[in-house]
Specification:
The complex is a heterodimer.
Chain A: E1 18-20, H1 27-38, E2 44-48, E3 57-63, E4 66-72, E5 78-82, E6 97-99, E7 103-104, E8 111-112, E9 118-120, E10 148-152, E11 155-159, H2 167-171, H3 173-182, E12 187-197, H4 201-208, H5 214-217, H6 220-223, E13 232-238, E14 243-249, H7 252-269, E15 289-296, E16 300-305, E17 308-316, E18 322-331, H8 336-345, H9 357-369, E19 377-379, H10 397-410
Antiparallel strand pairs in A: 1-19, 2-11, 3-4, 3-6, 4-5, 7-8, 8-9, 10-11, 12-18, 13-14, 14-15, 15-16, 16-17, 17-18
Chain B: H1 3-24, E1 35-45, H2 46-50, E2 58-60, H3 63-75, E3 82-95, E4 100-113, E5 118-131, E6 140-148, E7 152-154
Parallel strand pairs in B: 1-6
Antiparallel strand pairs in B: 1-2, 3-4, 4-5, 5-6
The chains are: A alpha+beta, B alpha+beta.
């Protein structure tokens, strides 16, 4: 972390084609992001509805630094509120998930319902007429903040802002349609894990939105001759620039042919998959799109990589630390063969993923590389200087979109 | 413990010892050979296991898949130079039949990066099913399940545990 004098914190005149490195390094900027972005007019992804399917189910998560409880109340409604006791500010829920009728802070046993209302204060009237709170004390007025909650086809988002637009408007029509494409039916959880990244949270979002790096950094497909250079695809930038979808189309029968060709061709080069069944996949959505990455500002990713479906939460943990929470899922209608296929394809993703392990390393390389250069900037001019959808993924348009949204929220 | 049990214990512990030395000395090409041909390997978190979720962080269901993993690490995946140091202890055997035994043991792995930073990278348990007389008469894994205590992996997990 480095200290950057306020007068140096001006965005370069070139606009979104430059990213000044102090945005990844400065503690004051980090604090302002918490206020203006995570507690501001954005929607943060909190989890899947499938994580809290029954009344009484809850999970704990974060909106930026702020700890949050997501719960399904006794009426079956989704609720989210700050995980902070009204009394002295302790976490009121310590578990990662569970089912309960009420939550009690362990410190002094103040109790809450699953809507986040304070329902009981231990010894409020004292014991035998002694102690207790004054009659006019109103601890209820100090209750944890409640979030606006929006479910969208199984995805759950929350915001503290009354001014944030509806979730549909926030996503934008094209991004919303692509989210519905994956969330097309009820989902079932396969499990999850986290990856702790040695870098600022924005470097991960920047990486997710960087369609240019995929074929250059992630060499798994190229090394094993499994990709085709002429793959069709594109990138769609939506919302106010902060949301995007990139997609690739590779016919599964063409992929099968590629295996065979790969076996012959790459044998000469010495590299081939001995067990290509790892990549055996089906076009379950029926549109030929084999890979779709969808990101929503500030920190949500919805992924379809062949039959590997997952949501990722990008949670800042300080200026140069980020927790990436992966939750993998299938559809409730999956047969055992499809379930096995998804579990097998989990080898492609996560901290040990054939096509994702480099991301954690690369973003850390940037954090370390820019350590002495807060006043310098990254160059983001692939595909031009605009923020617009494009057929080519040799393009940084969605990266520029991220910084367009970021600057607007931050007033930079 | 009778003499036969002690012999079995030593053979299994010898398998574990050869396994961790191969990985810690970067002889990853030897790694699949510790398994029977259709052997299975997977890394999962204790949390997923306890909640009944099957999702692995890494998995292979044959030696061929393990060789693909090593080949990708050697030729395709990009990660900083690093080495592991395993410590394995508390090896408890449970007989299954005359040919097979189950074992559970504890491990910790210290990861040292080329920058010189050594950190406790992983801790957990190995849950194994072992064929006592595999190829060359040595014990081999039919299944090795690595159960990580933590749900969080630092940066990336390239080398198998």
């Amino acid at each position: 972390m480095s200290f950057v004098p306020a007068e140096s914190r001006a965005w370069p005149a070139e606009g979104v084609t430059r990213v000044p490195y102090w945005v990844y390094q400065d503690a004051e900027v980090y604090g302002r992001e918490q206020e203006r972005i995570f507690r501001g007019e954005t929607w943060t992804f909190l989890g899947l509805e499938a994580e809290v399917p029954q009344s009484g189910d809850f999970k704990t998560t974060f909106m930026g630094d702020m700890p949050v409880v997501l719960a399904r109340d006794e009426n079956g409604e989704l609720r989210a509120f700050e995980n902070r006791c009204a009394h002295r500010g302790a976490l009121l829920c310590l578990k990662g998930s569970g089912n309960t009728r009420e939550l009690a802070c362990v410190y002094h046993n103040w109790t809450y319902d699953l809507q986040g209302n304070l329902t009981a204060v231990a010894f409020r009237k004292g014991i035998q007429g002694k102690g207790g709170m004054p009659r006019d004390a109103r601890p209820e007025n100090h209750a944890p903040r409640k979030l606006r909650v929006a479910g969208y086809h199984g995805l759950v988002f929350g915001t503290l802002s009354d001014a944030a637009p509806s979730i549909e408007d926030y996503l934008g029509p094209e991004i919303a349609a692509r989210a519905r494409r994956v969330m097309k039916e009820p989902v079932t959880l396969l499990g999850g894990y986290s990856q702790m990244l040695p870098n600022n949270w924005k470097l991960y979002m920047d990486n997710v939105k960087d369609t240019y790096h995929a074929s250059l950094l992630h060499l798994f497909f190229t090394t094993f001759r499994l990709n085709r250079l002429e793959q069709k695809g594109g990138v769609i930038v939506g919302g106010d620039g902060g949301n995007h979808v990139s997609y690739t189309m590779m016919k599964t029968d063409a992929l099968a042919t590629e295996y065979e060709k790969a076996g012959v061709r790459s044998a000469r080069h010495g590299y081939r998959l001995e067990a290509p069944e790892l990549l055996e996949s089906v076009d379950e959505i029926g549109d030929g799109i084999t890979l779709q990455i969808l990101a929503v500002f500030p920190g949500f990713v919805l992924q379809q990589i062949m039959n590997s479906l997952a949501v990722r939460q990008v949670i800042p943990k300080g200026v140069n630390r980020t927790e990436l929470v992966w939750t993998c899922f299938g559809y409730a209608s999956d047969d055992p063969v499809m379930r096995e296929r998804r579990l097998r394809q989990a080898n492609l993703i996560g901290p040990a993923g054939y096509i994702s392990m480099e991301d954690g390393a690369a973003t850390g390389f940037v954090q370390r590389g820019v350590a002495g250069a807060p006043e310098h900037s990254a160059l983001v001019e692939m595909g031009g200087r605009a923020v617009a959808s494009d057929e080519s993924r040799v393009n940084e348009t969605s990266v520029r979109g991220l910084w367009q949204a970021y600057r607007r929220h931050m007033g930079l | 413990m009778n003499v036969a049990d002690i012999g079995q214990q030593l053979r299994v512990e010898n398998l574990f010892t050869r396994y961790v030395h191969a990985i810690d000395e970067d002889r990853l090409e030897d790694w699949p050979e510790f398994f029977v041909e259709g052997g299975a390997y997977r890394i999962i978190t204790a949390e997923n296991q306890e909640r009944g979720f099957a999702l692995p962080i890494l998995s292979a269901s044959s030696r061929a898949m393990m060789r693909d993993r090593v080949s990708a690490l050697r030729h395709a995946n990009i990660y900083e130079a690093q080495r592991y140091r395993h410590a394995v202890s508390s090896v408890l055997l449970q007989p299954v039949d005359a040919e097979t035994v189950r074992a559970v043991s504890n491990f910790i792995v210290v990861r040292t990066l080329h920058s010189g930073e050594s950190t406790l990278f992983a801790s957990g348990r190995f849950h194994d099913r072992i064929r006592l007389a595999g190829e060359a008469g040595l014990p081999q894994f039919e299944e090795r399940v690595v159960v990580l205590d933590s749900r969080v992996v630092d940066t990336l997990l390239a080398i198998p545990i």
